[in-house]
Amino acid sequence: MDDFNGTATILADGASYDCKATLHHAYNGRAGGPAWGGELSVDEPDVVRAVRDAAEPHLRLDGGGGPFTVVEVDGDRVLRVAGTGPVPWAGQTGTVETSRATP
User: Fold this and answer.
1) Model pTM?
2) How many whole angstroms separate alpha carbon 70 and alpha carbon 39?
3) Contact 83, 69 (CB under 8 A)
4) Which residues contact 20 (CB under 8 A, 6 or more apart)?
5) Residue 46's domain is classified under what CATH number?
6) Does 24 reside within a domain?
7) What letters, b where the CB count within 10 A reaches 16 and e where it falls short, cover 86-103?
């Protein structure tokens, strides 16, 4: 499983916000395809509200991006998110950590 730990940009209703992203690849069993999710940490509580209330938030990383859904707000600076489709960090180097689950 590939994980992403690094900086990203949230696009929400015409505004952009810097964040720290901790993301992981998953499998979407219901839809039968790839999925991803994790946490986006921001500096200001106002950003959490703006992203949570956005019609179609989008995450942008170097070399990729994708739409996401806010699943939960954790405190006033962390968004738990989920996205479907290919991981938005595919093809990146330097900030991707590969981890393998042990059986």
Assistant:
1) 0.82
2) 10
3) yes
4) 6, 7, 8, 40, 41, 42
5) 2.40.10
6) yes
7) ebbbbebeeebeeeeeee
Bridge partners (DSSP) listed for residue 25: 36
Enclosing domain of residue 80:
2-98
Cα atoms in the 13 Å half-sphere on the side-chain side of 85? 11
The answer to whether residue 53 is domain-embedded is yes
pLDDT of 75 reads 93
Give the number of domains in the chain. 1
Task: Let me know if residue 103 belongs to a domain.
Answer: no
pLDDT tens series, the chain, 103 aa? 478 999 999 999 999 999 999 999 887 666 667 789 999 999 999 999 999 999 999 999 887 889 999 999 999 999 999 998 888 887 654 344 434 333 3
CA distance linking residue 27 with residue 22, whole number of Å: 17
Whether residue 3 contacts residue 44, with contact meaning beta carbons closer than 8 Å, is answered with: no
Residue 10 in any domain: the answer is yes
